[in-house]
Specification:
The protein has a single domain, classed as Up-down Bundle (Growth Hormone, Chain: A). The N terminus is likely disordered. It has 408 residues and is mainly alpha-helical. The longest helix has 30 residues. It contains 15 helices and no strands.
């Protein structure tokens, strides 16, 4: 009876075999990728001959990764739709990300890091749109919020563990061991995709109906897709901005890389415990209220991060920021899944994942520029941007969930 209830529960969330298989692969991918979050600022600080402040260089490297993957995701999404295949692109992308991570063991200068971060960005661009297209094809509208919540939760387990592993390895084993571990986890993720994730093929268009190859097809866009992209951009920028200021946080709060890793991962813990429930709630309450509430909650929490006085305060605020992000992430992806058109899933999803990638890129980059003037300034600015984003969402984002009428 217990087993039947458990199976029925997960099915009620929309979690099927394909979702579980892809989520397991993304777990390894997220761990391998996030190991670098707390290591890159320390690695850059050890470099000699830099002509720019360390925080600016860190912002550039973190930003480059996001800019490359964001710029290329629409192209790779269009390529996936045109090929009608998803799985090969995911595997190639993961292998490229792993190779870029391993390459850090041989990096000795700024331009080495630029090349490696660009390669990693290309790998992500290959992987993400194809993965999200499989998720869209494998889920149904009535339970898509729950399924997306499960998928993003497994990714968050990886993103939570990665910074902790990276910080621990850097302190106790050095940089090379950290980079090798990240590369090994990405190789494992590629193997899991090959073994466990089934291919989802897009039926070919009938003769005469095949459209020209277009990276951006305006017929696939609309307020829903663009609004979800804006929300994920603000979410990602707000939680990734602290990466640039790791050294400053460590000095101000008298903590080590491991302590900062705990604070960084605390956001993922907040998302972890709330992502599935909030994703499922969006299946009943609607996508828009969750996204709107998440942006409104993110604003004051982000501002408060800049005034943290202890590690405990930083951790608590990151947990709160994670819960707010959970209210945005799964519902935003579910909105686009609800609005997706057959054969265009990868391109539509790539717009939202591009928003996320741009947030990861521009958040740390702009933070590095503003922090030269004032440590608190970027936190205030991003807090206000979330308020502005909430206004836009309230005006333009359509609701895709039809709520059942109340019975007397």
């Amino acid at each position: 009876m217990t087993r039947f209830w458990t199976t029925a529960y997960w099915r009620s969330l929309g979690v099927n075999r394909v979702v579980v298989a892809l989520s397991a692969a993304r777990l390894g991918d997220a761990m391998g990728n996030s190991i670098l979050f707390v290591v890159i600022p320390l690695f850059v600080a050890d470099l000699r001959g830099l002509s720019l402040p360390v925080e600016v260089v860190v912002g550039l490297l973190v930003g480059l990764y996001g800019i490359v993957n964001s710029a290329l995701q629409p192209l790779m999404g269009a390529l996936s739709d045109r090929l009608g295949r998803r799985k090969p692109l995911i595997i190639v992308g993961l292998v490229l990300m792993g190779a870029g991570t391993y390459g850090f063991t041989y990096a000795h200068g700024f331009w080495d890091l630029v090349l490696l971060r660009a390669a990693q960005g290309l790998g992500v661009a290959l992987t993400v749109p194809a993965s999200m297209a499989i998720m869209t094809s494998a889920t149904e509208k009535s339970t898509r919020g729950g399924a997306m919540g499960f998928y993003t939760t497994t990714r968050l387990v990886g993103f939570s563990a990665g910074p902790l592993i990276g910080g621990y390895l850097q302190v106790h084993a050095g940089f090379d061991a950290t980079f090798l571990t990240g590369a090994a986890l990405l190789a494992l993720a590629a193997a899991l995709v090959q073994w466990w994730v089934p291919e989802v093929r897009v039926p070919p268009a009938p003769p005469g109906a095949r459209r020209p190859f277009r990276v951006i097809d305006t017929t696939l866009l609309g307020p829903g897709v663009l609004g979800a992209a804006l929300a994920t951009f603000l979410m990602a920028a707000s939680f990734s901005m602290v990466t640039t200021l790791e050294n400053e946080f460590n000095a101000r709060l008298h903590i080590t890389a491991f302590g900062f890793g705990i604070a960084f991962s605390a956001l993922m813990v907040g998302r972890l415990v709330s992502q599935v429930p909030l994703g499922r709630l969006s299946d009943h309450l609607g996508r828009k209220p969750l996204i709107l509430g998440g942006l409104i909650a993110t604003a004051p929490v982000t501002v408060a991060l800049g005034f943290s006085a202890t590690l405990g305060q930083l951790v608590a605020l990151r947990v709160a920021q994670g819960v707010a992000a959970a209210a945005i992430a799964a519902p935003a992806f579910a909105v686009v899944g609800d609005l997706s058109k057959r054969g265009g899933e990868a391109r539509q999803m790539s717009i939202v994942t591009t928003g996320f990638g741009l947030g990861v890129a521009l958040g740390p980059f702009l933070t590095g520029l503003m922090a030269v003037q004032s440590f608190e300034l970027p936190f205030v600015v991003f807090g206000l941007l979330n308020v502005a984003g909430a206004w836009v969402i309230s005006r333009y984002l359509p609701e895709t969930v039809e709520r059942a009428p109340r019975t007397a």
